[in-house]
Design brief:
The protein is mostly helical. The chain has helices spanning 2-13, 15-42.
């Protein structure tokens, strides 16, 4: 939880960093959802 709070405080100071963080999160999450849907379709 500590890391999340530290990151949250950075958002206030750096909106651009927040945007980059969101983009990186999307890049990480999309393949996870693809795998989840692929496994779901197999079951």
């Amino acid at each position: 939880m500590k890391e999340y709070e530290a990151h949250f405080s950075e958002i206030d100071e750096n909106p651009l960093g927040f945007a980059i963080g969101c983009r990186n999160a999307c890049i990480l999450v999309i393949p996870i959802w693809i795998v989840v849907f692929w496994i779901g379709s197999k079951i």
